[in-house]
User: Fold this.
Amino acid sequence: MNCPYCGEDMKKGCVEVRDGSEFINLGIGIVVSWMPEDERKKILRKNAVHLNTKGEGYYCEKCKKTVALLDERGDEFFQ
Assistant:
């Protein structure tokens, strides 16, 4: 994959979101979400998409940026 910022080739890897307590069951733990730009500063976000906390990722050594491909979590996770 080419970096969307500089166009250089990116290193393929994995992106994983953790809170440092992976050995302790704390319920749902961390939730990763995407939201539309216009809802970013709102307290109640109606259109957020909850994402898995692990997925394919790419790193650009030149820009020091990471691109993550995270799948949406199913609604059953929040029920």
